[in-house]
Amino acid sequence: MPEVNTDKIFAAFLLRLEEVAQIEDFDDIEKEFLGKNSLLSEERKSLSSLNEVSRKKYGKLLQGLANNITSKLEEEKTTFKSKFFIQKELNDNKDISIDWYKNLGSKNHVLTNVMNEVVDIFAAIGYTVATGPEAETSWHNFDALNTPDWHPARYESDTLYLDNKLEKLLRTQTSTVQVRHMQNNNPPVYIVAPGRVYRSDQLDATHSPVFHQIEGLAVDQNLTFSDLKGTLEYFVKEFFGKDLKTKFIPHFFPFTEPSAEVLVSWKDGEWLEILGCGMVDPNVFKHVGYDTDSQGFAFGVGVERLAMIRYGIDHIKNFYENDLRFLRQF
Amino acid sequence: MKILKSWLNDWIDIENISNSDISEALESLGFEIENKKELNPNYENIVVGKVLEVYEHPNADKVRITKTDVGNNIYEIVCGAWNFDVGAVVPVALPNSEIKDNFKIDKRDIRGIQSNGMICSASELDLWDDHDGILLLDDKLLPGTDFSTIYSSNDFIWEVGVTPNRGDCMSYLGIARELSGYFNKKLKTKKSNLKPTISNILNAGSGKIKECNSYGSVEIENFNVTNSSFEMRYRLTQVGTRIINNVVDITNYILYDIGQPLHAFDRDKLFGTISVRKAKNNEKITTLDSQVRKLDSNDLVITDNDKPIALAGVMGGLETEVSETTTNLLIESAYFDKVSIMKTSRKLNLISDASIRFERGIDYKIQRYGLERFLMELKDNQAINYSEINVDDKGNLKNKKVILKYSEIKKLLGIDLKESFIKKVLKFLMIDSEVNKESVKFTPPSWRYDLDRPVDLIEEFAKHYGFNNFESTLPQGVHKNNKGSYWDLKSYLSSVLTSNNFQEVQTLSFVNNDKNFLFNPEKKYVEIFNAIDQSSKFMRSNLMSSLIDVYKLNYDQNNLSNSYFEINTVFDTSKNKIYEDVPNQNIVLGFLTSSTLSNTDTRLKDHELDLYYVKNILTQLLSSYDLEPITKPGFHQNYSFSIIKNGQIIGHFGQLASETQMTLEFKNEIYLGEIYINKLKLNNLKEINYVPLSQYPFVKFDLSFSVPIDLSAHLLVDEINELLTENENSIEIFDDFQQENSRNLGIRIITRSYEKTYDDNETREILMNISETLESKFNITLNSSKND
How far is CA B584 from the centre of its chain? Predict the structure, then answer.
């Protein structure tokens, strides 16, 4: 029985390996040398015709060849694969410095962010958001807030009216929500009311006919001026940072007494006013049907002003033009 | 109000108190400092000169040459003003000096003559606006005197806000009164003995009406109308008042000094009795500003026998105005009702220094003092004669007694005040009071209208205690981190949209008629009665027009984005269902996106959005909803839908009408809509319905039906869901191919039983059941089916 020359076959196998160009070629080689129609398989079929000794011996030889081919093939395949993928990845040359996926608008408006933040700060100490209409009655905007028809303060805010009898108007302050809320709810009250207010101002660097305020109101047993002070100091520190100094100076609002303005010491030591506040005037309690010896405090803060101070925004117009070049920055 | 330190020093010794201490005092007394600055003009090399000679310039007609003694020299100086002559004493800016606006003065050749400096007007020295020419100085001044020594050149000025409740602080006296308490310094007095030398020839009285509590007057004869004193002109200019003549200047000066408005009439133009009454309807008067004012019975007028001579408390009449030729005067000092003056002033839109003081309330006891002060300013004028001061006071005004219990102080402020402190503050404030163990009974002084309740006095105590000396405590509400349903809903909707590349915007609420009409022609719009701008006098009835503007702006700017939203209020005049008595207004979420970005590059060109994209956004926002086609103005005829959730319409969306798109010159389709926030409940949007997972293998069918063009594919999906209701299903439309009038719809069904693995027969049965049911129910044909 002629035996095949296993060395020759193995040499032929090695030669074929050198021709490998792609990963699939390994499968072809495997088929060629180990598959059904391969020389090796043919030889194996003929084993049965040999005697036991020869069969064992020749079988062992063939098995040795098969093992060598298999292991060599695996080895080569592994080497090839790793080389191949290294090469493939080396050919991937994306320039990561390009932003193909553009920064599309995907943000809240900066004023919304500021309002959210203020609401969060007050929600943490038990305040809930209250709302009210923007087109209001003069009674809610002025009379109920202790600013009767003859009061000079009524004419200081340049009001936009909706009728010639001056009975309906666009609210000039979110304090109207205080009135609405107290008319419908009993104490204790802890609310903040963010929203739009309107004034008869032309849009320029520092004025806008539309702007936003956040009103706060707390009515509860035994609330004092110290509570008002502590609450607003807490707010300023949460919003602007712990290191900021605040001071309270007397002011006048028809609907609070005593009334104060809160100033913060900003960079370069300048004191900036950021909000107005005071103890709710007994007349306001009377108008909303509360006991006149109720006690509480109220405050109002300008949203645009907070944003302008914090980010150094120079022009109030930017908030309402909605140029993405501006909106995207926040 | 502007406060000049040198003027304030007339009333209280503050020269030696530092400006920063005064600033702090003003602020802690409630005067907001709007502005403050040091007045420190540079008068180096500006001296007094005496004009010795004046002669023509050989080469110029409009200027003259002077020889002027400037102390150690006599200079030739060329001058263009003609209001002086030989002997005049004038300010001279010598070479190497600076005048207004840092203009440098040096020797200069003026048409062949060397001018050694400049003779100055008041305006050139930044003193006041003066168009009369050169500033003429006191004849007694010696040439060469340093100009800064005759003019209080170093001064300080504060511009403070006086709150509307503190009319009493709209004068130097009022501010000084506050500071005297703060610094514990005595208020100075200004008094002199007056010696009337003539008797009145006119009668003057306060009339019958209650709106004039008192009317005071004095008559002056032999008066010479000229310039007021140097100091008065300086002071008035610094506080922002125009210099007119000595009569008007003094009345203005007294107004600022003590807060009592005065008015001067030319007495020779008055006849008979001077009195106050209400105007007749349609009565007319020409005021000092030459305007004819039409009055009604709410206005107060001052009259003589013949005519109205002044609009009381607001402005004098032109006819009886003091002129250069006036020699005899009647000076008025009155108290008019606050509200009456305010109404007239607002109605006529005529606001004067006098009217703003009357409307805030002046001291009701200083009418006589006002006239005394006027006469005191004339004390150096030997020539004049004046009458007795006559004040007709009805005596109707009296501040009432108020009782403040100490327990109220403790309750509001949270602190116990010592009796000594209470007494001290009451003394500062010049408040008449009886201090007892448990309370204080007080009567506010005649200038304080803001102290008529216990709480008003508590505020004064708090102010003088010092707001910054209070402890700080932090009370807390019961429900922490509960922002309420509206805020939570708004935040949720915003977060869904922003995570889908929608940018939030905030636009103004005012629009023109067209912007409302485009989408809401059926509504009546809320109109602003006193709109800032006639071209935007309506409140918007929708947010879509505003969003289109934002889209257009950024498109034109080449800003890369195409999706925007806004949550704000829209208005119309229908009945408001929540709030009585106000126009209808609803908070709406408006959104807009376009089919492509404004500024695409090759990589992003497949970033094309369509109606289905917007529908997917709605699904993310609302979780489940139905759409119903509607016809809506401004929208595409076929692509306009009501959004329905829980049986009610909660909004609408669609594609912008093609014609509008063209009119606006947009190349891309615009998809937009609105959701009515008050119709949503956050719980419904976040609804979770858990479906258990089947443990059995799925069967999958791809079915292709031939269907009518107008069939709503969703109906087929619903029907299949119904048929397979016992199973866990996923049913999707995977193809919708339309060509002319034919349409093929591909539906992929993946279904799993909860009980078993389907065998081939069962699978076939399911398929048969579905296709037959759909074919018969919707009159459609199954083209092909594939199952694996």
Answer: 26
